[in-house]
Amino acid sequence: PVRIKLTEDCKVKAVDGDKTVELSDYKAGAWLSFEVSVDAAKSEYSVSVNNKEVLKKAGFAEKVASVERLSFRTGKYRKHGRKARQLEKAVNGEPVGEVEYYINNVSIAR
Q1: DSSP track, 25-65
Q2: Distance between CA atoms of 57 and 37, rounded to whole angstroms?
Q3: Which of 7, 12, 78, 103 has the maximum number of C-beta atoms within 10 A of its C-beta?
Q4: If phi over 0 gives left and psi between -120 and 50 gives alpha, with beta otherwise, what is residue 93?
């Protein structure tokens, strides 16, 4: 339901309902600090980047009853499973270039 992107043109973007919004710029190789607050009952979330609130009460990308996992990935959005991988290969064709990122101090609170 929550999608935050670091794009190749050094922009931090997020999905707000049915649209993508730009949150801030970033510099490749520099640390970023994210805080994401989620209200599953209201299907909304807020985002802070480097201790500055940049998105408030954004809508989920899709309706869900709960938020159950945190995942990090590279490349274009894709659904899970073998069929989705086959579709992505057919649609995108090109593999995503190598990307390196470090994740530190993840904390999840209720």
Answers
A1: E--TTS---EEEEEEGGGTEEEEEETTEEEEEEEEPSS--S
A2: 9
A3: 12
A4: left
Predicted pLDDT at 91: 47
The CA distances from residue 41 to 36, 89, 99, in Å, are 15, 35, 34
Query: What is the strand order of the sheet 11-16 is part of?
Result: 4-6, 11-16, 19-25
Beta-carbon contacts of residue 72 (< 8 Å; ≥ 6 apart): 101, 103
User: Which of helix, strand or coil describes residue 88?
Assistant: helix
Is pLDDT at 82 greater than 80 in this prediction? no
φ, ψ of residue 60 to 5 degrees: the values are: -60, 155
Cβ(13)–Cβ(7) below 8 Å: yes
Task: Please tell me the distance from the alpha carbon of residue 4 to that of residue 72, in angstroms, as a whole number.
Answer: 10
How far is Cα 11 from Cα 17, in angstroms, rounded to an integer? 19
Amino acid letter for position 24:
S
- 63-74 average pLDDT score: 83
pTM for the complete prediction? 0.76
